[in-house]
Amino acid sequence: MRRLVALVATALSALLILAAHPAHTALADRDPLRTAFDKAAAAHDVPRDLLAAIAYAETHLDGHEGSPSASGGYGVMHLVSNPTTHTLEKAAELTGLPVEKLRADTDANILGGAAVLRSIADELGLDEAARKDEGRWYGAVARYGNASTPELSRLYADAVYELLGLGFKAKGLRVAPREVTADRGEYAAAQDLNARAVAASPDYPNASWVPANSGNYTASSRPSSYAIDRVIVHVTQGSYAGTISWFQNPSANVSAHYVIRSSDGATTQMVRDKDVAWHAGNWSYNTRSIGIEHEGWVSDASWFTDAMYRASAALTRHICDKYGIPKDRTHIIGHNQVPGATHTDPGPHWNWTTYMSYVTGGGGGTWSATVDNSGAFTASANWGTSSYSAQRHGADYRFASPVAASDPAWFRANLPSTGSYRVEVWYPSDPGYNSSAPYIVATSSGNQTVFVDQRSGGGGWRSIGTFTLNAGDRDVVGVSRWTSGVGYVVADAVRITRL
Predict the structure, then answer these.
(1) How far apart are CA 489 and CA 383, in angstroms?
(2) Cβ proximity of 327 and 210 under 8 Å
(3) N or C: lower Cβ tally within 10 Å for the chain?
(4) HEC profile for 259-270?
(5) Cα separations (Å) of 485 from 432, 454, 482?
(6) Is the Cβ–Cβ distance between 178 and 52 less than 8 Å?
(7) Which residues are bridge partners to 289 per DSSP?
(8) 255, 217 in Cβ contact below 8 A?
(9) How far apart are CA 145 and CA 53, in angstroms?
């Protein structure tokens, strides 16, 4: 009898699956990526949006047709197989799927990434209750990035959690901005590489300094040992944090002088200008050049933001002025132009016209306005004034305790035309500041709110997104007090740039 009941139950399940199959197939056909993340998250009890944020931070949800990243990562989840890291093989062990399928099949790759993330969470002791809180997954996310140091692990995890706060939409998948307090745990003590005021670059004042492994470049005394007469533009084929970590890996046998982040143009120097980085694949060109890596993939134009172009162009202009290099396309070249090059970067999506106009100073006509917490700024008496932090913009900044009411501080600007604008914010960071500060942007389609962790990344401009804004003189960006995040909410300065 028990066997008969089981057979009947199995038959009924099969009928239910068959009955639901057409609708399910239609959904999967319409949004296959969303369906894949839903299935993987459910199968391994990981937060769906957190899993998607990891994928977006790694690859912008692009599997690159099974081609590996520079560090040997595959698929949208960047499952890695290199001499020191084997998350691809780990995913195969956990899922029972062959390595070949995990490399090339997007659904399998996402399932593998979810399995790896869950296994890390289990190692860290996250129980069922803890797994329901996205903020408690921070340590697992930090380990998923396979970074070489705690500082880089924090840089990686902070990028993922920043995406949760700001939200994103790509390839039929949408992650809405949300309040989330990242529980950094042991990583709270690690240096915040997002803070512009720490680990200053020895050669370029707008960069931070994270040295590459000494086995990945040649020590030298340029320009006395070799003249420097070229700047070579590269694309990382990987993420910002992942590339920095790879250059610190002794098995990489590769490096560049500088790495630039896509979202906001943040710049890290890894090899001194005087030393020879191994980036060109041609010893003669290595000795005579400065190599600049740009976060992203050759095949995906979404990585090449205006913020990246402008930051890179400012760096290149600085290098050219310092070493007397002509600012032209003979001396500022792509990796693909190096004699004997097997690489194609920066590729067809890199806009050389825009880039060179910024390098030569011809692209400076874009409208931009910076609004500090004075002048075109309003806030109630509930907002205090402080000059405590040296990371502040200008003389001081405003702060208030979070409450269950908006009471926003507003930054006002006179926008010259309706169009697309990049909005950046400046705030001093401190462990006592808000873990999920709500920034309100008055867009042409209504107010949009994004959330920023003000405990880290202060003392510099942080992009919170690109928005369509209406022309006119009005309140454009507000900082609300209505948040479940802990710590003072800070309003310091905003910058609005027409694209």
Answers:
(1) 9
(2) no
(3) N
(4) EECCCCCCEEEC
(5) 11, 10, 9
(6) no
(7) 230
(8) yes
(9) 12
Alpha-carbon distance 447 to 353, whole Å? 35
Q: What is the pLDDT of residue 431?
A: 95
Alpha carbon distance, N-terminus to C-terminus of the chain: 71
Residue that is written with structure tokens 């320009």 in the block: 223
pLDDT digits (tens, 9 = 90+) for 173-229: 999 999 999 999 999 999 999 876 556 899 999 999 999 999 999 999 999 999 999
Q: Which two tokens stand for residue 355?
A: 């880039």
Amino acid residing at 168: F
Q: Closest by alpha carbon to 87, among 109, 106, 70, 105?
A: 109
Beta strands in 351-418 (DSSP E): 368-372, 377-378, 384-386, 397-400, 409-415
Q: Which residues contact 214 (CB under 8 A, 6 or more apart)?
A: none
What is the number of residues in the chain?
499
Amino acid identity at 284: S
Nearest in space to 180 (alpha carbons), one of 486, 457, 428, 495: 486
Tell how strand 230-235 and strand 332-334 pair up: parallel
Encoded amino acid at 238, one letter: G
Identify the band that residue 30 occupies on the pLDDT scale cut at 50, 70 and 90: low
Tokens 């057979």 belong to: 7
The position carrying tokens 């902070």 is 158
pLDDT of residue 2: 31
CB 422 within 8 A of CB 469: no
Coil, helix or strand at residue 364:
coil
Cis, peptide link before residue 98, omega less than 30° from 0: no
Contact 106/279 with Cβ under 8 angstroms?
A: no
Q: Which of 442, 440, 430, 412 is nearest to 490 (CA)?
A: 430
**Plot region of 231 (φ>0 → left; ψ -120 to 50 → alpha; else → beta):** beta
Closest among 164, 166, 142 to 152, alpha carbons compared: 142
Q: Which of 29-33, 406-410, 473-477 has the lowest mean pLDDT?
A: 29-33
CB-CB contact of 449 with 177 (8 Å): yes
Adjacent-strand bridge partners of 74: 79
How far is the C-alpha of 488 from the C-alpha of 486, rounded, in Å? 7
Strand 289-294 and strand 258-260: the pairing is: parallel
Distance CA 441, CA 460 (A): 19
Orientation angle between helical segments 352-360 and 306-323, nearest 10 degrees: 50
> Would you say 315 and 264 are in contact if contact means Cβ atoms under 8 Å apart?
no
Q: Is the CB of residue 52 less than 8 Å from the CB of residue 110?
A: no
* Segment 85-131, tens digit of pLDDT: 999 999 999 999 999 999 999 999 999 999 999 999 999 999 999 99
Q: Give dist(CA 259, CA 201) in Å, integer.
A: 12
Average pLDDT over residues 242-263: 96
